[in-house]
Amino acid sequence: MNPETTLYLILLLGGLLLVGAEIFLPGGLVGLLGAVALLGAAFVGGSKFAAPYNLLSVALIIVLAGIAIYLWIRFFPKSRMGRKLTLNADGSRFTTVAQESAAWLNQEGQALSALRPAGLALVQGRRVDVVAESSWIPAGARIGVIAVEGNRIVVRQLATPVAPKP
68-105, pLDDT tens digit by residue? Predict the structure, then answer.
């Protein structure tokens, strides 16, 4: 084999392997390198081969790339690997933190950490991130939820402390 044919085959096979490796190494760089290698193979084939084979080489690369893209779009998302790599949920049952946290308004709880002014609290048996209304609330203090602003739960220290839970 002459050097042009060897270069052509290396670029063609390397490009196909790199484009195929994009499945396992997402990010675009590997696929881009594969596309550049395929373009290089088309250039080498178009410029170094004899008259009927140069156009045949370029046309074959373009047609095979088009078929590969079509098959990829058509069948990959339905394959076992495609189902693992893609999100199938439509998001209709997703809820925001604000919807969940609105139920904590006017509830009492206990500061699990010192609130300076943010920290953790136990409200309705759940650990939640809270923000103190004023400056500092010590850990173990009894707190009450006074406001829910989006996903921000604002608490105030209540008069009597809660006994720490083991």
Answer: 778 777 877 787 877 877 777 776 666 555 556 568 78
With beta carbons less than 8 A apart as the criterion, state whether 17 and 24 touch.
no
Query: Which residues is 122 bridged to in the sheet?
Result: 110, 127
Distance, CA of 2 to CA of 111 (rounded, Å): 77
* Three-state secondary-structure class, residue 105: coil
CA nearest 143: which of 89, 114, 107? 107
| Alpha-carbon gap, residue 23 to 92, rounded angstroms | 28
Please state whether the predicted TM-score (pTM) of the whole model is above 0.70.
Answer: no
Question: Is the backbone peptide bond immediately before 138 cis, with ω within 30 degrees of 0?
Answer: no
Amino acid identity at 36: V
The token pair at 126 is 């759940």
CATH code reported for the domain at 97-157: 2.40.50.140
Q: Going along 99-166, which residue ranges are E strands?
A: 108-111, 118-123, 126-132, 142-149, 152-157
Maximal C-alpha separation, the chain? 93
pLDDT tens column, 101-156:
568 789 999 999 999 989 999 998 889 899 998 878 999 999 999 998 878 899 99
Distance separating alpha carbons of residues 42 and 20, to the nearest angstrom? 18
